[in-house]
Every structure is written in C-alpha cells, then in structure tokens.
Design brief:
This protein is α/β, with parallel strands linked by helices. 35% of the residues lie in helices and 16% in strands. It has twelve helices and eight strands. It has an eight-stranded mixed sheet, with helices on both faces. Helix 4 (138-153) crosses helix 5.
Length: 362
C-alpha cells in the first residue's frame, strides 16, 4: 500500500490529473507541453573581461535556456584546431560575480588544456535573462548548471558522456547540489565554496544558529517584501562595502581588493556595484543545498585556501561526500579570494588532472 501511495503521490506532483471523466483525461493526454526557446539577449561584442584573451583558444558568446524558461548568456572557449567530440566543462561563480571575472578565468584556462568550456552568468544576473534582476535562488541557480549540461550535451563537438562542472564561491555549493540531482554530470569541482543556505540561516561560523535569530531575519526580510511591493521596485542591498571602513573584517578587505579595484571590478558585477535585492536571501533560509551530498556517486573535488575564512564550508561539504573518488585540496597560504584569480595559487594542474582522470581528453 505504501508503494501504491507513493506512485500516486509522484503522479500528482508530476501534474497528472486523476479524474473519472474519460474525455478530460484524453484531452490531457493529447495536450502538448511546448518547449522553451532562447530569448533574445543584448550581448556585448567587445572583450571586456578582467583577464587577457588567450591566443590558444577560440572564443564566442552563446545562449541557452533553463527549465524555467530563462535564457542564459555564456562565453564559450574551445581549444584552437580541436577536432571531434570534446570533454566539456561548465563554470559559474562567484556569488555576485559575472562570467567576465573568475569563472571566465577558469573556463579559458581549462580550454587551453583541452576542454571545451563555457562560463555562464546565472539567472537574473549579468547578461543573462530573468526578472526581477539581481535575485538568487537555490533551486533556479542549481538548475542553471543542469541547463548548461542540456546545452553542452546537444553540441555536435561535445561528448555528452564527458561533461563536468566547476562552481566557485557560492556556486560551489550549487555545483555540489547539481551533482547530487543530475546524473549526467560526470565530475564536479567546488572551489573556495560557500554553502549559501548555511551562511544565510546560521550566519558566519554558525554564530546565529538559533530559532530566535532566524525569526528576526525572517521578519526583516518579509517586512522588506511588503515595502518593495508597495514601492513597485526591489531595493538593493549594496555590493561590497565602499568606502572600506578601517575596522572591516579581513575577509571583507579581501573582497574589496578584488571587486572594487582594477584587479577584479566589472560594471555588470553585483558585488562590484549595488549588490543583490535585499530580499534575495529569503529562499535560502529554508533550503539545505548539501542535503543529498552523501548520495553523489560521481567524482567531486573540493578546493579551498588554507587561510580562507570560508574554509569550514568546504571541509564540511567534503565530510558529507562518500566514496574513494572524492578529493579535498587545501591550498597553502591561500585566502578565499586568492582562488578567484591568483594564477600562482589556483591549483590548475590538480584540477586539470582531476578532470583528465574522470573526463579524459583527446
């Protein structure tokens, strides 16, 4: 009986209507659910990255759509003179960044090493579509990775059985969540990761991990919802604080050095400018990105800096993973933002070796 009940429940969740009216059933059976087509996006044609263009790869811009009908923008990097079906990697992050920043660095570097790669802007940010703007979602942003796999799987120059993903910072947690749900993802790397659901619900270092603190946060966010609806627009929380207070925590100073200076500033980056919507965190409060991390059978590498304030996120995630195809790489002396763009500290050889082992290259 439990099995029958479960089947019926799953059917209801899938939108199958149980009714005694045969004609209505036939109508539902015959009805076609139209697919989604890419929307039109305004994509810049100039090279506006924070890093120089490589002469070892070909680059172009592409678009693809996710299951929610949002069109995503991406930079595609392909090894010059590559032939046949290649292993492919989709890259995104950090949280509040755009593809012209860290994810593009990773994508271009991995393309130089023989992989076809894309660095994409998540839904509602950068050059990607979706409204309202500047909002994050544990569901939709996990789906963005799977949408990238949809796109790559259907390219004639990609081997659909050799697709991996890289998530940086907050997208490291999204990447692990995507690996838990999408069996097409054959290898995952989470770099300098945040678990955005944990930090939202518990605060840094779990300092606010209590019902009272969460209730206060919920009250604040819901009051902001009422205010936004009345005003007809969404207030922004602000990006990385500017000017930087002298007594700012060290990790905030590191964020400032990356996002607010020539090193990493980009005009479309949320962190470089006015930040996320104030209510963007709501859906993260009741979610658990790593709930099924222990069920991931595919290979996962977690990379973190020895001196990163966020190191505990990566180490906790790694402890949840199971199997001998999981790796933890702690980079000596590295802080959180070093793994955004510091070419001397990012362990590209280790990451490349991991993907070569599990995806291979020709």
């Amino acid at each position: 009986m439990k099995t029958i009940g479960r089947i019926i429940g799953l059917a209801l969740l899938s939108g199958i209507a149980f009714t005694s009216y045969g004609k209505e059933i036939q109508k539902m059976t015959d009805m076609k659910n139209p697919g989604v087509k890419d929307g039109k996006l305004q994509l810049t044609t100039e090279w506006d990255k924070i890093f120089p263009k490589s002469d070892k790869v070909d680059h172009c811009k592409v678009t693809f759509h996710n299951r929610f009908g949002i069109t995503l923008a991406a930079d595609l990097y392909k090894p010059k003179n590559a032939k046949g079906k290649l292993p492919a990697i989709a890259v995104s992050g950090p949280f509040g960044a755009v593809k012209e920043q860290s994810s593009g660095i990773y994508a271009q570097q991995l393309a130089e090493r023989g992989f076809l790669t894309i660095a994409f802007d998540p839904s509602f940010t950068g050059e990607s579509g979706g409204t309202p703007r500047f909002v994050a979602s544990p569901d939709i942003n996990t789906e963005d990775f799977s949408a990238a796999v949809d796109y790559l799987s259907n390219r004639p120059d990609v081997d659909p059985e050799r697709i991996g993903i890289v998530g940086i910072c907050g997208w490291g947690g999204m990447a692990i969540n995507a690996a838990a749900i999408d069996t097409r993802i054959k290898a995952t790397v989470a770099v300098t990761m945040y678990d955005m659901t944990r930090v939202t619900a518990n605060g840094y270092n779990d300092a606010d991990d209590n019902p009272q603190a969460r209730r206060k946060l919920r009250q604040t966010l819901n009051a902001q919802r009422t205010k936004d609806y009345a005003a007809g627009y969404y207030e922004l929380a602000g990006g990385v604080i500017d000017p930087l207070p002298a007594d700012a925590p060290q990790f905030v100073k590191e964020y400032y050095d990356h996002y607010k200076t020539k090193r990493g500033y980009h005009p479309r980056s949320l962190n470089s400018n006015r930040g996320w919507n104030k209510t963007s965190a709501i859906s993260f409060l009741n979610a658990k990105l790593l709930a099924y991390a222990g069920e991931i059978e595919s290979p996962v590498m977690v990379v973190h800096g020895e001196k990163a304030h966020s190191r505990y996120f990566g180490e906790t995630a790694f402890k949840m993973l199971k199997g001998d195809n999981k790796e933890l790489v702690i980079v000596p002396d590295a802080v959180h933002c070093d793994l955004y763009d510091n070419m001397k500290l990012i362990p590209f050889d280790r990451i490349d070796g991991f993907f070569r082992k599990y995806l291979g290259t020709k």
